[in-house]
Amino acid sequence: MRISGQAHNIGILSDAYGTxxxxxxYDMRTYYYFRDHSGWFKENYTIDGKLYWTHTNDLxxxxxxxxxxxxxxxxSKQLAGYYYWVELRDQYQRLI
Length: 96
Fold this sequence. Notes:
Radius of gyration: 19 Å
Number of helices: 1
Helix content: 10-25%
Distance between the termini: 32 Å
Structural class: mainly beta
Mean pLDDT: 81
């Protein structure tokens, strides 16, 4: 068996004999959303390129990240001073 593709995307399994049988499997992606009582946080930039955070009620516009490392080293520093919690959702934006 040969596996190709990335760990969190689509992987394709095909046998070594070349019989043409191809299996496609999907690994579920999880995303972290940042929320407070006003809604979800949305990342915006000024013309000068400075980051500022606003709120949105539309989940599709909300800022999301799929890496715990980014939360620890980047996002938590940017959201310092805000009261927020982290929601874990799947690729279809359903709560996990």
